[in-house]
Amino acid sequence: MLLTIDVGNTNIKSALFEAENLKDFKVHSNIEKLNDFFSSIQTKNAAICSVNPSIGKSIYEILVSRGISVFQANIKHKFNCTINYDTPHTLGLDRVCSVAGALQIAISKNLLKSYQYLMTIDFGTATTINIVSPEKEFIGGLIAPGVKTMFRSLSEETVQLPLTDLSSYSGLIGKSTISSIVSGVLNSTLGMINETVNWIKVRSKIEPLIFVTGGNSELIFPHINHKVTIEKALVLRGLKIVYDLNHKIN
């Protein structure tokens, strides 16, 4: 059994794999909650993907203290796609693992056409869009504030704008300050997605195969005008692939 851990900016996600079967997916609000979870499982192997170095280090030390062998994914490892990125040392491993997981699902289910791009969107503290070319190259993407980050920023950085959320969405043209904020936040995110899809369609003539993940995905999913697949554990599935490709030589 393999324990996989995705350390994000806000939450920590974990899942167990028995062979290729994912089970016991959980979201932990802090490291203490995760440590409690460790006490309930038995495993000799773990894999970590982290965008928070201090928390990732603490989790690593906890796992090692429990006698667990820990694989820490990094950009020098082998992936199921080629990395074509100008600054790979700055590339978040969660982004690479998300496309690794999406590629594995797409290939195993024969969903991806030979001339089709693949696109993952992670709706978390930041909204990240990641693109894989038909040649199976990770070619980059887009990074923007997540929807909750935008709501919070508007409330904290202005004097009169209130804190709100997507539940107040009533259409493109807001008829109140709250509905205007909600429309601005949501449609700026949807516009980014649409522009990316259009960029891809110019190059491949068809829409990309799109996977979405992240804590805000279910809030935004109903508003996306493209066919998408939601996979809550997308990064963890990708981390499992990276582990399988590399752990024997590490």
CATH architecture of the largest domain: 2-Layer Sandwich
Percentage beta strand: 25-35%
Reported by name, the CATH topology of the largest domain is: Nucleotidyltransferase, domain 5
Name the structural class: alpha/beta
Strand order of the largest sheet: 6-9-8-7-10-11
Mean pLDDT: 94
CATH class of the largest domain: Alpha Beta
Count of helical stretches: 7
Concise summary:
With 250 residues, the protein is of the alpha/beta class. The protein has 7 helices and 11 strands. Helix 3 crosses helix 7.
List the helices and strands and how they pair.
Layout: E1 2-7, E2 12-18, E3 21-28, H1 31-38, E4 45-50, H2 53-65, E5 69-72, E6 82-83, H3 93-108, E7 118-123, E8 126-132, E9 137-145, H4 147-157, H5 177-204, E10 209-213, H6 217-220, E11 228-230, H7 234-246
Structural notes for this entry:
With 250 residues, this protein is of the alpha/beta class. The protein folds into 2 domains: 2-72, ATPase, nucleotide binding domain (Nucleotidyltransferase, domain 5); 82-237, ATPase, nucleotide binding domain (Nucleotidyltransferase, domain 5). 37% of the residues lie in helices and 25% in strands. It contains 7 helices and 11 strands. The protein has helices at 31-38, 53-65, 93-108, 147-157, 177-204, 217-220, 234-246, and strands at 2-7, 12-18, 21-28, 45-50, 69-72, 82-83, 118-123, 126-132, 137-145, 209-213, 228-230. The strands form 2 sheets. Strands 6-9-8-7-10-11 form a 6-stranded mixed beta sheet, with helices on both faces. The protein has a 5-stranded mixed beta sheet with strand order 3-2-1-4-5, with helices on both faces. Strand 1 and strand 2 (12-18) form a beta hairpin. Helix 3 (93-108) crosses helix 7. The longest helix has 28 residues, at 177-204. It is globular, with a radius of gyration of 19 Å. It starts with a strand and ends with a helix. The mean pLDDT is 94.
